[in-house]
Amino acid sequence: MFIPIQKILPKAIAQLKMTRQTRAALICEKYRKLAPTLVHQEALKFTSPLFFRNKILIINVVNSAWAGHLAKCKPDLIKAINGALGHVEIKDLKTRLDERVYTE
Questions:
Q1: How confident is the model at residue 26 (pLDDT cuts 50, 70, 90)?
Q2: Rounded CA gap, 38 and 31, in Å?
């Protein structure tokens, strides 16, 4: 009998007591997948998910222009990420300025 990995993986992660770290990594990965479609095609060149803690996703941005752009897209990003996860996980999205984010 075939059992989909989607059913096995959450139990394995819980048994290894990695749920918080795994959830944070999953949320950051959802940002990476959705940002180019919701924010801008080149969003990942100028923004990068830093961490997820206390239901807040922190995104590094290269300058204040990108911080402003993310602020405009914030409701859509939160809704899309939570929708992709199937439940409300993110309550807020904040930015942190870090010029080193930029990658050519």
A1: confident
A2: 10
**Nearest CA to 61 among 75, 37, 45?**
45
Token pair belonging to 19: 């749920």
pTM, 2 dp: 0.78
Amino acid at 45: K
For residues 69 and 39, the answer to whether their CB atoms sit within 8 Å is: yes
Q: Which residues contact 102 (CB under 8 A, 6 or more apart)?
A: 45, 46, 62
- Cα dihedral sign for 41, 45, 47, 52? positive
CB 30 within 8 A of CB 81: yes
Task: For residue 43, count other CB atoms closer than 10 A to its CB.
Answer: 23
Distances (CA, A) of 28 to 5, 58, 59: 21, 9, 9
Query: How far, in Å, CA of 72 to CA of 90, rounded?
Result: 16
Instruction: Give the pLDDT mean for 48-75.
Output: 94
